[in-house]
Amino acid sequence: MPNIHIPDHAMADPLGYALTRHSPVIGRAAGEFVKSVYQSLRLPLRLAEAARYRIAQINGCLVCKGFRAADHLDGYLDAVGGDRTTSLVARGGERPDEAFYAAIDEWQTSPLLNDRERLAVDLAERMAFSPNELGYDEEFWAKMRAAFDDAEIADLTLAIGMWMAMGRFTHALGLDTVCLPTSAAA
C-alpha cells in the first residue's frame, strides 16, 4: 500500500503518478535524470546492472530488484518518451542472466563478476554505507582510476546516485508494493 495517495486508476504506475501529480517540477527533473542515465551511460550493461542491482538490494526496493535492464529498459523508455536506440541496452554487451544477479550477493568472491564489475559494486556499497569515508580512501580511488577513466567514474557515480535516490523514493513511499518492473526504472 502506498504511503501517499495514489488513486486506483493510477495503480499501474504509482511512481509516474507521484512524480507528475504530487511533485511535477521535481518529478519531471527526476524523470529526465533517469532517462539521461539509461540513454547516456558509457559503461557496459553488465557493469551498470551490477551496481544498480546492489543499490536495489540495499534500498530494499521491490520493483528495482525485479527490474532487468535487458528485459525492461526499452519498455520503460518507450513509456516515458525516451529513445531506446541510444539506451544502455541498445549499445549491446553481454546481457546479465539470473545467475549474475544472484552472484551480486557474493560480489567480492564470485567468479561470475569481473574486476570492473566488482569495483562498480564496491563503489555502490561505499556510496550507500560510508559516503563520508569514500572521498578520502586513496587506495580505493587508485583502484578505480586504474580500471576506469574519469568520464566512466563520473558516469557511474551519477548513475549510482540516481539509483539510490529513485529506489529510496519509490521504496520509502511504498510505491514498489504496487508497481510493475516495467513502470519504473529505478
Structure description:
The protein has 186 residues and is mainly alpha-helical. Helix content is 62%, strand content 0%. It is built from ten helices and no strands. Residues 180-184 have low confidence and may be disordered.
Identify the overall geometry: globular
Helix fraction, binned, reads 55-70%
Q: Give the mean pLDDT.
A: 93
Using the CA coordinates, give the radius of gyration: 16 Å
**Helix segment tally:** 10
β-strand percent reads under 5%
Taking pLDDT < 50 over at least 5 consecutive residues as the criterion, the unreliable ranges are: 180-184
N-to-C span: 19 Å
What letter string, H or E per element, gives the SSE order? HHHHHHHHHH
Q: Helix/strand-derived class?
A: mainly alpha
Regarding quaternary structure, how should these chains be classified? single chain
Please provide the count of β strands.
0
Main beta-sheet strand count, sense and barrel state: none
Summarize the structure.
The chain has 186 residues and is mostly helical. The protein has helices spanning 14-22, 24-40, 45-59, 62-66, 69-79, 98-103, 115-129, 131-134, 138-147, 150-172.
